[in-house]
Design a protein that fits this description.
151 residues, mainly alpha, 2 domains, 7 helices, elongated, transmembrane helix, UPF0756 membrane protein HMPREF0501_01069, membrane
Length: 151
């Protein structure tokens, strides 16, 4: 019963914060929880979900290459600007930090409670988005803007 109340509270907060991604995610988790054999599927989703999410984000990132919006010429141009190098560095930094974060979650699962709470607060109260590549882009934006650089 406590888990349902906790999920309902998250759903209400997400709706109040008008965050459709968190609303959908919470409803999906509630639906999965209501299905039979939940005890088998929830741990699988918990263990593999981050990798599935990263795969979906990677597909979305690669689509502009497939459609021709981003070309090899664009990639070469990135190497000619300080802003491009900052973006590359932020992508590398976030990838490394993400790997360390996944390792941390495996070693200390209790930190998940604080991370989930912080993520919910950031998403709902500050209109944030829970996604690694977007973090790299945000860091790049901050540094490039602060240094008044352009791509």
């Amino acid at each position: 019963m406590e888990t349902w109340l906790f999920l309902a509270l998250i759903l209400i907060i997400a709706m109040f914060g008008k965050n459709s991604s968190l609303v959908i995610a919470t409803l999906v988790v509630m639906l999965i929880k209501a299905l039979p054999f939940t005890q088998k599927w929830l741990p699988v989703i918990q263990n593999k979900g981050i990798n599935w999410g990263v795969t979906i984000i990677s597909v979305a990132i690669l689509i502009p290459i497939a459609t021709g919006e981003i070309t090899f010429h664009d990639l070469m141009r990135v190497f000619r600007t300080p802003a491009g190098w900052i973006a590359i560095a932020m992508g590398i930094a976030v990838a490394i930090l993400s790997r360390l974060g996944v390792n941390q979650l495996s070693a200390s699962p209790q930190v998940t409670v604080a991370l989930v709470f912080g993520t919910i607060m950031g998403v709902v109260l500050f209109k944030g988005i829970a996604a690694g590549p977007v973090i790299a882009s945000g860091l790049t934006y901050c540094i490039v803007t602060m240094l008044n650089l352009h791509f």
